[in-house]
Every structure is written in C-alpha cells, then in structure tokens.
Amino acid sequence: MTKKFPIIAALAGGIAAATAAFFLLGTSIVATGPLGAPGLMSENFKTGALSEPITEVDCTLSDGTKTTCYKVTITGIPVDTKIGPFCPETTTTSAKDAGIWLDGSKIYDVDGKFILDLSTLYGDAKWKLYRDDGKVNVTDTKEAFQGAAKPDVEEAYKYHCVEGKYEWTNTGKAVPITALIPKNPVAASSSAVTRGADLGVTLNGLVISGSAPVDAILGAYTIAAFDDCGGHFNPIEGYHLHAYTDCQGSTYGSQIDDPNAETRVIGYAMDGLAVFAPLAHDTTIKLDECNGRTTTKDGYHYYAQSPELNKVVKCFKGLTAVDDTQPAGPPAGGNGGPPPGASSNVTGSTSNYWAIIASGVVGAVIAGGSGALFSRKKSRRSAAEA
After folding, report:
1. 369 φ, ψ to 5°?
2. Which residue of 12, 192, 232, 312 is most buried, as measured by CB atoms within 10 A?
3. Contact criterion met (CB below 8 Å) for 154 and 143
C-alpha cells in the first residue's frame, strides 16, 4: 500500500488541478455579456431612410447564441444629402466640381491637378487618365461603369476615373439593403477585425461598407472616386458609404471648433452599437482599440475613423448576427479563419484546453512529488520504530 500512495496522490492531484483550471479558465471560453450600450433606437433614423418599418425577428449570433434582432432595411438613398460629383471632367476642373479619393493613408481632392499628379503621387509613369486635349477618361456609360467597377477591371476600362449612378446598377435603381442587428448588444470575448462584409447602416438610409479595395483599384490604374460625402456606386449595392465626412470632403474636421466636443450619432454598427461622427484630428479624448469609449449619456459607442483611413468602423466589440443575405467577404480571422465575433472564442477555447492539460500535468507532478516525499518519511519512521 505504501508504494501505491505516490501514484494515487499524483492522480488525485492531477484531477484536482485540472478541475481547478477548468473553473478558473473555462469562463473565458465563452466570455460574453452586456456591453453597457442602449442599442439601436429606431426613432433616430431620419424620415424616409427606411424602406419598411423596423421589426424584431429571431436570430443567431456569431457565437451560436439565440436571441432577438432588429431587421433594418434601408433605402440606399441618402435622404438629406446630394450625391456627387465624383470625377473631374478635365485636367483643369476645380475641387468644388469633383469628389475625393482616399487610399488608407491620405484624402485627396479629385480635381484636375490630382489627375495630372497621379504618376508622381504613386511613382509610376503609366498613370495617365486623360487625353491630350485634357479631357479625363470617365466611365460615362453603364457598360463602362460595370466594366470598371469590379475587382477584375476589363482592359478597355483601365486608366479611367470610375463613377456611376443608380440607373447603371444591376437592378437599374436604388438598392434597399437589409441588416440584422442584435436588439441588445452583447460583448464578444475580444474585438473582431472588420473587413469584407458590410459594417453597419446610417441614419439617413445608407449601408456602411467595408474598406474599398484600394489595391485592386490602383492596380488597374483606375480611381473609383467618392463624392464629398464619402460615398460612391458599385453595380451590386448601388450608392454606399466608405467614409464619413459630413459632406465636407477633404476639409472634414476644419469646421470643428472644440476638438474635445462630443459628436453626433450617424448610424449603427452590425453589432448594435451606435457609431458617432469622427472626432477632431487634434482631440485629446482617449479611445479604445475599436475607436470607442463609454460616456454617462450614451454608454459605449464607436466613433467613425478619420475619412482617409477607408474604414468607418475599426472593429467590433460586440457579437454580430449570422445573416446569409450579407455579401461574402474575407472572414475576420483571415483566410480560412472563423467568422466575425467567433475568432477569439475558438482561439480562447483551444488555449484554455491546453492550459487545463498543462495544469493537470503540473498538478500531478507536484502532488506526486509530495506523495512520494510523504511515503519516504513514513517508511523511515517505520524503520526507526522497528
């Protein structure tokens, strides 16, 4: 019996350590809960922004949780702003008669000078989007627009400034888009990178799209110009938003007098959190990794990123709804990775299981060692007594 004690002690110690590790670490396998945010408020949407009333429906979140979502269908037409202009007509066109371009690091006025300077700006002499008479190559027909406004630009429409209109979309009119947005925002175990599918909806009736594919656009020697409001057309979603500028174009922020003043809500992200207009460039307000913060009045909310960054919502703090109607895009975890909101749960689960095993092994060694020491002491004591 004395020889068996270390083994029994080791097994008992291992089980105890593994059990303790499970209860200590297991809670982070599904680390979700309220986000301290009021969620979507239907009364915030502008009159005419919705193509049908907001309704409540059953839905499933990205971690498998069954819950209730709002079904929000926006019109795809901004109810309070004017669309365009986009591309300049000639190399002498001024900024007031053209839109903007943003490439992830800087925002530009797409005026005639910009078109002339492209070869210098991007260090490639092939850039020439204009004819010898100064007229800019612009997609001015449905055929040209659809041939250029896609990742694999048709050869005939390279070296063009790309612009569109509702009549040139696949449906020939505005494209209403439906989003499923959790009624009560739920925190994910960690933030999820936003890329690929749509990121949210605006209060004036537009979809907030993911980052524009700048590399593909520039790789085809095209400029998919935005208007001063940060939107442009594609054949599938029609007019949509890639940046928020309050329709101030490249001058956004210059009209903000107090750099630390709170901005206003402009829409809702797909996880149900409010999105506020960007803060001033020189603000001293501290934001978290998803460009958000909590205030007494509004709870937790995001701020749209600066327009030049080509991404309105930086990342999701909350779980999103699984919506098969959403356009396909790269998953949040990268190629072959898990869907948005689930990546950290999967990673967390795997690491937790390894931690449990490691804890068990360590516990077994410690307990076994203690048992062996106790056994040796007992043996010596018995020999002395004999």
Report:
1. -60, -40
2. 312
3. no
Q: Which residues contact 65 (CB under 8 A, 6 or more apart)?
A: 32, 186, 319
Q: Find where tokens 């498998």 sit.
A: 64
Between CA 318 and CA 327, with CA 324 as vertex, the angle to 5 degrees is 85
Check residues 205 and 23 and name the one with the higher pLDDT.
205
SS3 240: strand
pTM summary value? 0.76
Do 164 and 197 belong to one domain?
Answer: yes
Cα torsion for 189, 193, 196, 201, to the nearest 10°?
80
Assess whether 303 and 220 both reside in one domain.
yes
pLDDT exceeds 90 at position 358 = no
Q: Name the one residue in this structure whose structure tokens are 């689930």.
A: 342
Banded pLDDT at 197 (limits 50, 70, 90)? confident
Q: Are residues 39 and 21 in the same domain?
A: no
Could you list the residue range(s) of the whole structural domain that residue 381 is in?
5-27+346-385
